[in-house]
What we know:
Number of domains of chain A: 3
Helix content of chain A: 25-40%
Oligomer: heterodimer
Helix content of chain B: 25-40%
Number of strands of chain A: 13
CATH superfamily of the largest domain in chain B: Beta-grasp domain
Amino acid sequence: MGRVYLPATLEAVLEILSREPSARLFAGGTDLLVRSSAVRRNEGSLVCLERVEGLSGVSESDGAVRIGACTTHGELMAGGLIRERFPLLREAVRHIGAPAVRNMGTIGGNICTASPAGDSLPALHILDAEVELHSAKGRRRMPLGRFILGPGLTALEPGEVLTAVWIDKDQGFNFHHFEKVGQRKAMAISVASMAFAARLNGDGIVARARCAFGSVAPKVFTSQVLDAFFAGKPLNEETLGAAAALVREGVSPISDVRASEEYRRTVAGNLLMRLEGAKAAGR
Amino acid sequence: MKRNISFILNGSEISIETDPALRAVDVLRQDLGLTGTKEGCGEGECGACSVLVDDTVKLSCLMTAAQLEGKKIVTIEGIARGQGLHPVQQSFIEYGAVQCGFCTPGMVIAAVAFLAANRAPTREEIRDAISGNTCRCTGYQKIVDAVEDAAQKMREGDSDG
């Protein structure tokens, strides 16, 4: 029978990992404890990070916001700093699971699970989030885009722990939208999702835009060509229709139990068409 | 490899010897005999195993027993107020929000946690609050009706108190 550790400090976590390199880390358990059947749970030790000091909560410093890796989606939604600074991220995590799942699942877990369908990931890409990693060797930071390597794959090294997410405070966006398509509203794994943020001029012309898609490629899909395409244009049907064509060309979805490759490609483009209505609604 | 785990269960401090790698739902149902908490899917999809952990709704099928340590746990058995039912339970009865009853403990737990923070919810907010709890009998209307009524009962209770 495997052990379950409930360490209170990061030093204790690193010590456990040096002694038992195969021990698996978890915070909310919404991913690891689902996949682990009773039999699999017996294979090795588990390290629960929920009580590790310094890993929960949101704080501000030097032009950036630090989100502890074990901050739950529910805590992110409730916090004033996230609401004020990163409404796109708040909107994205609001679409995760349902209240109980959001009270358990964490931002660090969503990142380390590295699912192509992770709903916080497109928003974090747009916000140029960086991950903070700790190991016995010390601390390092890297952009989220370099940390996630593919489905379920990250640059996390043995003995290393993701401790926080850093996001620059001033993003300069004044319009955002997140939308996901799933088989139902709650508790659905995304078939396709889109996060969008832009700086719009007073006349509604895009000064700068960032766009990211989930569930339509092995990693979050972003495109500098697409982002640049929006500049100088209004978010109307003509602009969005042309941008949708770029998206459908760029994405590389798979067919699985939830949707076909063709459906995902089509709907990814269609999600962009929602921006005109979202803008009209003043969101 | 059993170990001692101490926590507050439905208002009473308890201490048990159990395997910390067990799931919390198994400890509650098997070690402690509190079978009000149900296991539906075992994957965090259905909400039947919902319990309150430090007043927050969580899923006991996705928690290890170790994580109970030091926590304040409330199961459906701890929701009633002495001999009297909680307003949510009373409203579930009055509105016929129970059919087979399997989802009911989780539904009640989710509703109690939600109403503690929101005494004047819209129907849309109620739907969101119970969106992680699957019911295959009622079609949800009567459950939403019951939660709406419980909110009113609780508002009245607040003003009386």
